[in-house]
Amino acid sequence: MKEVNEAKGPDQIVDLTVDGKTIKMRVIRLMLDSGDEEILVTNLLDESFGLEDFKELYFKRWGIEVKFNELKNRLQKDSLVLMLLEDNPDKRSAMLYRIMEEISKNVVPIRPGRSNLRRKGLRAIKYPVNQKRSL
């Protein structure tokens, strides 16, 4: 994406041409606390959202991205595609069941009073003393 690389400002709107169509995109460059630069591309052109708003949203989304990546790796990368291409309905149902089982294992409450309680309980930290010492 040449247009994204050429956008040097911290918050800039660029025209991206794809298959003969021109799309307006917003390129945002954020400096992270680590000193690294993160480039975000969005179609949210409303300028009432500033750089700090995007930075906050980016960090809120990051945990979701990490969990999704973890889930995708557990299911093996092509499972979703294979499920959609599978002709046998029984195999497709079995694949969907496995995917839903993995997703349900990763349901973790993110706010107080949430109705989906965490079921791991004390099993989550089986050896707390050893775990603390290893860190």
Explain this structure to me?
A three-stranded antiparallel beta sheet has the order 1-2-3, with helices on one face. Helices cover 44% and strands 19% of the residues. The protein is extended and about 50 Å long. The two termini are 42 Å apart. The protein is of the alpha+beta class. It is built from five helices and three strands, in the order αβββαααα.
Give the overall shape, derived from the CA principal axes: extended
Helix content: 40-55%
Portion of residues in beta strands equals 15-25%
Question: Can you summarize the main beta sheet?
Answer: 3 strands, antiparallel
Determine the mean pLDDT: 76
What attributes characterize this protein structure?
alpha+beta, 5 helices, 44% helix, extended, disordered C terminus
Topology at a glance:
Blueprint (H helix, E strand, L loop, with lengths): L1 H5 L4 E8 L2 E11 L5 E6 L8 H24 L4 H7 L3 H17 L22 H7 L1
Antiparallel strand pairs: 1-2, 2-3
Task: Kindly summarize this structure in a few lines.
The protein has 135 residues and is an alpha+beta fold. It has five helices and three strands.
